[in-house]
Write the structure tokens for this entry.
Amino acid sequence: QLVESGGGWVQAGGSLRLSCAASGLTFSVNAMGWFRQAPGKERELVAGISRSGDSTYYTDSVKGRFTISRDNAKNTVYLQMNSLKPEDTAVYYCTADGSGNYATPSPGKWYYWGQGTQVTVSS
């Protein structure tokens, strides 16, 4: 089970930190990722992190603004989002995959999913 928290409303230029707590899976053997889906758009991979946390992936639109990290002792993955823009508005989903591939853009390739948390950025 993956449970996200930390979403909400923020003005453009602001920051939010999303958290995702995992249970019922061996957290440290799973690559972790954050997807987002805006209304009328496909779900897209925003960021991914390897099992150890040594390697990360970011989609181009968030590079330099978002940071993904994980704490394997706490079974938690984070997404720090800075300099938020209205186009970042979406439902953000935490996801996990035991294959270890942290940069797979296809949602169907990820096995575990959270329920999602809404992020709204106003201009």
